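Preliminary data (for renewal application), tryptophanyl-5'AMP complex.
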Amino acid sequence: MEEAMKTNNQPEAPARKKRIFSAIQPSGQMTLGNYLGAIRNWVEMQDQFDCVYATANLHAITVRQEPKKLKENTTNLFALLIAAGVDPEKSIFFHQSMVPAHAELSWVLSTFTQFGELSRMTQFKDKSARHADNINAGLFTYPSLMAADILLYQADLVPVGDDQRQHLELTRDIAVRFNGIYGKTFVVPEPYIKKNAARVRNLLDPSKKMSKSDPNTKSFILMTDEPATIMKKFRSAVTDSEASVRYAEGKDGINNLMEIYSACTGKTYAQIEDEFRGKGYGDFKTAVGEAVVATLEPIQIRYKELISDRKYLDELAQKGAASAERLAKRTIEKVYKKVGLVR
Ligand code: TYM
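Predicted structure:
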């Protein structure tokens, strides 16, 4: 066969590109943490891999949402991700609720997920503490839906921030368990978590991750924050009393600012330490703020253009969903057949 191919002068079939899947919830606005921890990597991976990305609106309703706002936030997030570099020409990009196979596979996988496993999820513990009046079944089985998102597309790699590591582990366990019972059905995915900015921290309490659900808006940077707001938030960021810009244990506030600065400028920690030797934290915070503004400004300009044409954005999502549906169908048909479900 190989000989024949050579003599016919035909190129060898290219190896299958690795498949990527990731998603982000449209609950409120996107933060700098989402961008530096995950979305930047989604964008970078598009040239090399076969990428499938979604807004996770089914996940978002595990916390009560105002319907009109949820719909608006979903389209806004879609536009913001395109502005940040997610390219619907290169990647399949859609809203989770447009492809019913996510919910279908989620149900099947929930029967392969144990109560004990779900009980150990730190995100469930955190969220049920924060929403004690609405600890619904969906909040509990959320990781089965996330596993369905990933396994549906036979993803090899999942670019996420560090806080999703535990969910990824569970996804792998579910895939291995299912494959063990029914024979190879799912690719067992690997998390793709970059070292730098995998956990961008809360600006006022660096022991916590940066999160839009924090009641104090000064603790996080939103992708759409005005430059003056960004500068102000960095000026009030918590540091320490040492007055020395260096990356070290016990300097969580400064480490966080260094990670952000490094992610936005491409400078190494050693270069940053050199740059600010003998200077105070005030100068450093100003430089971090300016670097973030410079990173976000082009995204904000593009976002404002995109968001004015919601019809175009809806059409793009419909197109993405049609491509996603074709891939998802293959997996869901295989799974239903293996489990013995009539279709
Ligand atoms: P979500 O919407 O909370 O966050 C989206 C992505 O941003 C990352 N992230 C961070 N990274 C660094 N520092 C931070 N402070 C920070 N905050 C958030 C998250 O790790 C994530 O990668 N369950 C997921 C959404 C989801 C999903 C999926 C992800 C649904 N299905 C399938 C991957 C694969 C979530 O709530 O992410």
